[in-house]
Design a protein that fits this description.
By secondary structure, this protein is mainly α. The protein contains 21 helices and 2 strands. A hairpin with a 2-residue loop joins strand 1 and strand 2. It is globular and about 65 Å long.
Length: 551
């Protein structure tokens, strides 16, 4: 199968999945615009703000995309492009999109609360505390590592730093224009997108050169402000405009494939065992966001659910957003496979995975007729887009960590004045998150723990599917569509953690082994609690059926 055929088959499969499987899911959960969403019921002008579907899709897509769907398939391609391709297609349609969509719907039906709040409703305060602690810790790692990635990129590519700053300024003006001046979205978007590309040009003309250390402090200050600022000022408009960068990369890359017709130089199947580990379970953990990601459930139930204007918007935003990310993952895989085997290995060994994507997509953009895009120019534009996505995920993760921190102290027990302040004050939760992330950055712990993040992220997905399964059972809704994916992801994650723990004990890296053990214990405790909850629901359903027969 050629590179163009891979892309076209993927797009066709995702469209089919959206229409058929996504439509079935929407009917099963009973989406209805008669049900008011939290964005309207709990409007506060800060976090709960209704957004038009295209704007919300832009925010959601830009937030969940990040670098994951690009780096994951490129790294996993060492197993061969065949297994990676199949997992992206099947995983995105039947597991990842289901995970994102059901997490969003469950949150919308629970006043826009996070998955942790839903866990509390099913497993009690202990289950909630475990889940939120795990989620918060994972998000702090995201903030720390993504901040370092962005800071390093800004140091090495000062033009990207300038363009990113201009993006933020442009987003603020766009937000005021749409939400305060009530300017029409269509014409305002056209102007905003034009200015977006002007910012790219100005970034090349006036690069800002600072050290990575200075950029780290600036970025941490920025994410603090971004996390406490009303979403309509920065989050919604910035993510909406940034999403057009990603759309441009997707469309440009796909159309470029039609003219470039690059050959696939990587083998269909490489080896069952590589330097990453064995294909099962490591492949599924490595691809991560390209097929499913626990981080998506935190975005869906953290910021997106609080901005959903109508329930029917959940399908294009939640289910459709994941499928668009699947297209991006396929494009990244094709970009890697189109490089010569020697070049791929060279960049792979150097850890230059963004460069793999940039070089591949740069060739596709160069092949577009009439536009006159050079390979270097196309590669630079692709690199800039990746940096923009990472920056988007960075401040979204900070806001989500703040939500998890606040919800941890929102309990059913009698609150003290101290816990009430921690639950209600958004500045404290944000400050704690930023300070702990700074500690990881300055101590080097972020680099030591990062190898665990892939497993932690996928475990989060399994636990989110578990929470949604319990919620569906409690409502009497058939839950096989989430229960089966949950079992698969749980098996994958536990297997990966066991391998990771054994490997790091052998290497005397007891920090990684300890963190892996802690995550494994959390997963096992929540699984046991969920097992008893599922038995209770089965007993209630059986008793109900018996009563109906008796009557």
């Amino acid at each position: 199968m050629g590179s163009l055929a891979l892309a076209l088959v993927a797009v066709a499969f995702f469209v089919f999945g959206y229409r058929v499987y996504g439509g079935m899911l929407a009917n099963r959960v009973g989406l209805s615009n008669e049900n008011p969403t939290p964005a309207h019921e709990m409007y506060d002008g800060v976090d709960y703000v209704p957004a038009k579907a295209p704007v919300l899709l832009g925010h959601h897509f830009a937030s969940i995309a990040g670098a994951g769907p690009i780096l994951g398939p490129i790294i996993a391609a060492v197993f061969g492009w065949g297994p990676v391709y199949l997992w992206i297609l099947l995983g995105a349609v039947f597991i990842g999109a289901v995970h994102d969509f059901t997490s969003l719907v469950a949150s919308v039906r629970n006043r826009g609360k996070s998955i942790g709040e839903i866990v509390e409703g099913q497993l009690g305060p202990v289950g909630k505390a475990l889940f939120l602690t795990f989620s918060w810790f994972t998000l702090v790692l995201v903030v720390a590592v993504f901040a370092r990635i962005v800071a390093t990129t800004f140091e090495k590519q000062p033009n990207v730093a300038t363009a990113s700053i201009l993006f933020i300024v442009l987003a603020v003006f766009f937000g005021f224009a749409v939400y305060r001046r009530n300017l029409p979205l269509g014409p305002t978007t056209v102007v905003g997108v034009v200015l977006l590309f002007v910012a790219v040009f100005l970034g090349n003309a006036f690069p800002i050169s600072l050290s990575a250390g200075w950029w780290l402090y600036i970025l941490l200050a920025y994410v603090f402000v971004a996390s406490v600022t009303p979403v309509w000022i920065l989050l919604q408009p910035r993510d909406y405009l940034n999403s057009f960068l990603l759309y441009a990369i997707l469309l440009g890359g796909l159309f470029g494939l039609m003219f470039a017709h690059p050959s696939l130089h990587l083998p269909v199947f490489g080896s069952f065992k590589t330097n990453l580990g064995t294909l099962f379970p490591i492949l599924f953990v490595t691809v991560a966001c390209g097929a499913i990601s626990g981080f998506h459930s935190l975005v869906a139930s953290g910021t997106t659910a609080k901005q959903l204007d109508k329930e029917t918007d959940a399908r294009p935003v939640g289910y459709g957003g994941m499928l668009i990310e699947g297209v991006l993952a396929v494009l990244a895989l094709v970009a890697a496979a189109s490089l010569s085997h020697g070049r791929y290995q060279e960049l792979y060994q150097a850890g230059a995975f963004v460069t793999v994507f940039s070089e591949g997509v740069g060739k596709f953009l160069h092949a577009l007729p009439l536009l006159g895009i050079s390979e270097k120019g196309g590669s630079g534009f692709a690199g800039l887009a990746v940096s923009a996505f990472v920056l988007t995920s960075l401040d979204t993760a900070t806001r989500l960590a703040r939500f998890a921190f606040q919800e941890f102290f929102e309990t059913g027990r009698v609150e003290t004045s101290g816990t009430a302040v921690l639950a209600q004050n958004r500045f404290i939760g944000t400050a704690v998150t930023v300070v702990v992330a700074w500690f990881f950055l300055t101590s080097g712990t972020a680099h030591a723990i990062w190898p665990v993040f892939g497993s932690a992220n996928q475990m989060l997905a399994a636990l989110s599917l578990l929470a949604v399964t319990l919620w569906l059972r409690s409502k009497g809704v058939p839950s096989g569509v989430t229960f089966v994916p949950m079992l698969f992801m749980y098996t994958v994650t536990v297997s990966a953690l066991v391998i990771l723990i054994r490997m790091n004990v052998a290497r005397h890296n007891f920090l990684l082994a300890g963190v892996g053990t802690l995550l494994l214990v959390v997963a096992l405790v929540l699984a046991v609690e969920s097992y008893f909850a599922l038995r209770r629901y089965a007993r209630v359903a059986w008793n109900g059926a018996q009563d109906r027969e008796a009557n």
